[in-house]
Write a structure and sequence with these properties.
The protein is an alpha/beta fold and 474 residues long. Helix content is 43%, strand content 14%.
Length: 474
């Protein structure tokens, strides 16, 4: 039965691929998704473009968020094991590009499709001594192939949503066999550890190491990347910045309606929208323009010369209309209000949070995604708001709410009233932000605990005290 398992999975993958192929083709043509690296991922050729280091440790992050999560882990790993080569992989195109920025001195590959021949070829070619998966990507053929080759697989910063737990519980007999192919699970919280135990992983192969996302956060608003964005957007000292980040439909529309209501009362309020998915950038741009609101897109600033003309966006100057028209898109001239900034780029939300006085974290109002990372804006000391659907970050939400470092809103009306309250009460806004930053700083240390957990599989390696690190993205 065990020998037949990979073939059964291959068959199921082919059936799923055939059923989804019209949608995948449509996405590839309309959104440019799923086109890059398909051959490499299908046939396990991701490693073919570089010289493979001897017996590396393979770190994997699914997309941009998980790649960023790997930064403190890889940094700590290099401190302890400077002579051990590493390979980094990612599943999505955006994650692959971001990994190249974050780890320019490491070999970056695309994660293979979970066909038995794909994973076998990559594992045989790379020959990792250890595979470290960030949070998820527990594909059965990969785990089985690694187990067959006696390559330990450790899941770090592991978590599982209640929805995923309920779904997997229905096939617990198969899930138990599948998850037990891992060597160890380092869970974020005791609650997540209990979920993995209920799914069949022995308790002695589960540890609680904390949330690594606290270790990778920036807390200094005067860091160079944030200062660069402030200069680029010409945000004045008297402006109050509200960022709605990692948003999904209909959250941008909700924020736009609220912003329209607040503009007259708070003329120095600046709204920055950051959609979660890059294929929605144009949709959100049209949404803003159709509402008759002023708009500046991050992707068009330097091309139009806007990034070099201080008068274009500043609230401290009164440039002539014809001067503005040379550098600001036409939509930004329609109203006398400050233009909305659409941050239509990948990898800049992190430093952008450092601009925020008020931060609304998206993916939390639609009831579909379970929230996004609210730790980053909290670390900068922003007044953090999020909706009721935050099951992916239950521990962080609980800590933030217990310390009055954030507010959870129920709907559009509640979001509007909370933002209005924070705009009117600067003292409350600053106190909430200070509490958020204090909490974020108190939770650091998970990366060191995580790397220490890897020691049993790396003991033969001679350690050295010094190493050159690359821990930040360009």
């Amino acid at each position: 039965m065990a020998r037949m398992f990979p073939f059964l999975l291959n068959f199921l993958y082919f059936v799923a691929l055939a059923a989804l192929s019209p949608w995948l083709v449509w996405k590839a043509l309309t959104a440019g998704k799923y086109r890059r690296g398909i051959r490499d991922r299908l046939f396990g050729n991701s490693h073919s473009t570089f010289r493979i280091p001897h017996s590396p440790v393979w770190f994997h992050g699914v997309s941009v968020g998980e790649v960023h999560l790997l930064r403190p882990i890889v940094g700590e790993f290099r401190r302890r094991y400077p002579d051990v080569p590493i390979v980094i992989s990612s599943t999505t195109d955006t994650g692959f590009v971001e990994a190249r920025k974050c780890f320019p001195d490491a070999q970056i590959i695309r994660w293979p499709f979970d066909f038995s021949w794909s994973v076998a070829r990559v594992l045989d070619a790379i020959g990792p001594r250890l595979v470290v998966l960030a949070e998820s990507e527990l594909w059965p053929n990969f785990l089985l192939a690694a187990k067959t080759r006696e390559i330990p697989v450790v899941v770090v910063n592991a978590r599982m949503s209640p929805k995923s737990f309920r779904r997997l519980s229905r096939i617990r007999f198969f899930v138990r066999r599948w998850l037990n192919l891992t060597a160890h699970v380092a869970a974020q919280t005791p609650e997540h550890a209990e979920i993995f135990e209920l799914l069949g992983i022995p308790k002695d192969r589960i540890s609680v190491t904390g949330n690594v996302k606290y270790d990778g956060i920036e807390t200094n608003r005067n860091n160079e990347k944030t200062k660069s964005l402030r200069r680029l957007f010409h945000i004045g000292e008297n402006e109050i910045v509200w960022i709605a980040g990692s948003t999904a439909a209909p959250e941008e529309e909700i924020c736009l309606r609220i912003y329209q209501k607040l503009q007259n009362e708070f003329p120095n309020l600046r709204l920055i929208l950051v959609p979660r998915q890059k294929n929605r950038f144009d949709d959100v741009s049209r949404l803003i323009e159709n509402a008759g609101m002023a708009l500046v897109r991050r992707s068009e600033i330097e091309a139009s010369g806007l990034g070099t003309r201080h008068s274009a966006l500043s609230t401290h100057h009164s440039p002539r209309h014809d001067d503005l028209s040379q550098s600001i898109p036409h939509s930004a001239l329609r109203t006398p209000h400050l233009p909305i900034i659409l941050l239509d780029s990948i990898g800049e939300l992190g430093p952008a949070w450092g601009l925020a006085d008020i931060a609304f974290v998206g993916g939390s109002l639609d009831g579909k995604r379970g929230g996004q990372n609210m730790i980053e804006p909290a670390a900068y000391g922003a007044a953090v708001l999020f909706g009721p659907h935050t099951w992916n970050f239950r521990d962080a939400v609980q800590r933030l709410l217990e310390t009055k470092a954030a507010a959870q809103i129920e709907n559009e009306q509640h979001l509007e009233s909370e933002i209005r309250r924070l705009l009117r009460d600067a003292s409350e806004r600053l106190c909430m932000g200070a509490a958020a930053r204090k909490l974020a700083l108190s939770q650091k240390g998970a990366a060191a605990r995580t790397v220490e957990l890897l020691d049993p599989w790396l003991k033969p390696v001679v350690q050295s005290p010094t190493v050159t690190l690359v821990e930040s993205c360009a």
